[in-house]
Amino acid sequence: MTAGRHDQGGPGEGETSRRDLRSDFGGVAGNLALLAALPIGTAYLYFCARFNGGRLLPGPEADLEALAQSLIPSWETAAVYLAWLAFQALLQAFAPGPTVEGTPLEDGTRLRYRMNGRSSLLISAVAVGAGAASGLLPLRWIYDHFGELISVVTLFSYGFALFLLIYGRAGEPARKTRGVIVDYFLGAARHPRIPPVTGFDLKVFFEARPGLIGWVLVVCSFAAVQIERHGSLSSAMAVVCTLQLAYVLDYFWHEPAILTTLDVQHEKFGWMLLFGDLVWVPMTYSLQAHYLIDHAPELPIWAAALCVSLGLVGMTLFRWSNLQKHRFRSDPKGLRIWGKPAEFIETRHGNRLLVSGFWGWSRHSNYLGDWLLGLAWSLPCGFQSLLPYFYPIYFAGLLIHRERRDHQRCAAKYGEDWDRYCRRVRWRIVPGLY
Ligand code: NDP
Asked: What is the pTM assigned to this prediction?
């Protein structure tokens, strides 16, 4: 098996940045701890929402026995999940959609990606709708098997990451590997494809398809259970579902923008990304809808409007800033931002750093927009419990850590030019504050 051009990052991804990133997430000890802690954390949040009365800390309603029982995986759930993966993989391979080129690799060539997320989402919605309407797979199946799904998908991610390790290392010169544990956790290959180079892109597939579309289904399932149980959809649930659905739709609408993100351009593909995409996103980002099944405050119209407006502000900032960078990096010729020619800093490396538009406000306005949107879909849950606010609290930590890692990588890559950029664009994420 030859894995071919697995490890090529952007031009000039040097040994310095590779060495620095080896200690990411606490090195070997930190990686091992996270391999255990993230699945336990997912199960704990599920426990809080389902078996602990919606509290973040164990309370009088805590039912550990029911939790343990519901986490036992079943063959039925494994079969349904594998069928879901196979269905999504078929859509990725054959659903209609344009093919676009990614950013240049180390040798100047570009990989090609099939961007058929929109049609895949549509076909998935029709298929799931038909399954639910026929009674073959009712929407509440996900709710009923949620604990089993957490276990099944977690086991799958441990197993598939092993495959990624072996496959990635096969195409990897030994000098570039970072040890078995780190390679398993953070990945051994940057662009694993089957077959290499021209084939099915595993990272971009798992980054979005089974998990993001799965997240929509999870949220719809929780909403369906609320209607079944309480006779109607609460306004709070409606706001949460609308904002989360809009986030996923927006992703697929602007799918090529994923090609200029940190994950696709620079991260290798290992357990951390895989688990995040398959388990963490659908199972924990749906926490608000899970909580709301039985704790739905009736929102006054002004409160619902406020949450939706905050969500729209967040989404606009998130998408618009990501698009500014994506267009700049994909085809900067003649690009105008806010009516003026795009301004940038030339680097000795050859890449240009945009300093116009949102990229002149702060180095990651896109993170701020994303966070505001997450806050907007937590607020409809009210203030009875801290549980629904797990997401904005955790996400703030993730984005601050991510910005620091990106800063370290870019400083190693661009040297003095990065310092110049940071002097020009002073704020890291929140203009005027941080
Ligand atoms: P960015 O999209 O900001 O990409 C960072 C990369 O862009 C850098 O490594 C650098 O790469 C390049 N870059 C940095 N500054 C500039 C500049 N001024 N001009 C041109 N290029 C620049 O970061 P992420 O990939 O982390 O995030 C993408 C989106 O995904 C964000 O909106 C984020 O909020 C979201 N996200 C969401 C998560 C979630 O769980 N919901 C998790 C992670 C991200 P190069 O080396 O090529 O120069």
From this structure: 0.89
